[in-house]
Write a structure and sequence with these properties.
Layout lengths: L1 H12 L7 E6 L11 E6 L1 H27 L6 H14 L7 E8 L2 E9 L4 E9 L5 E3 L4 E3 L22 H5 L3 H13 L8 H8 L11 H5 L4 H14 L2
Antiparallel strand pairs: 1-2, 3-4, 4-5, 5-6, 6-7
Helix pairs in contact: 5-8
Amino acid sequence: MPGATLSFALAYELRDANAPVIIQVKSNSNLFSDDNNMMQVEYDVAKIRQYYSEQIDAATQEAEESEKEESGALIQNEEQALEYLKKYLEDNDAYIPGHIELDGMIDQGYNFHGYDDMGDHIATSFWYAVSKDGKIYDGVMGNYVDAIESDTSIEYILPYSDSQYYTYDEVSQLSLEDLRIARNEIFARYGYIFRDEGLKEHFERCSWYVPTGMSSEEIESSLNDFEKQNLQLIKQCENE
């Protein structure tokens, strides 16, 4: 009976009832004492609406905070975790096996199995887990290893646009949004302060970004040959 009464109250509330309403409930058996076997229940629908609105607002805020925290993480997906791990191995002159595969998620992060297929058996080199804040956990030794504190390449779309020439094939495969960010990365390196809120928020999350207040004209006059050509290539791909 309480369930039926509540569902009816909510249905009534959805029909624009703001003031307290009287709901009559009739029993199929002689549960109520009056002659018509009826019971009247008063509901303050405005309070019901306020309660559920507060619950929805709280859940929405929690989801937004979780999403914001996730977007600010150093490692946001499997691909970045794998790139981060490979960079760690290269910088430490460690052996890189023929296969590095994700073996699910564990408490320490993305869990990678590094191995070589020897034909008649699998030769395991390591079990490393990469956390979202850039920590690397050695599953064999059971401890954390020193990660690459200076590695910021995963925070870029085109991490070497200031020191190497990118090809058309490399740049043309990027989405329009990634092209836009890659173009502005060149200016962000010089500390340009963005007026666009989306770009401003994006680069403020990058550990390498240091606002200097240089104007776009000052930056353009300071670009090196790599940056000039890459900038031109990015614009070309954006206009296609």
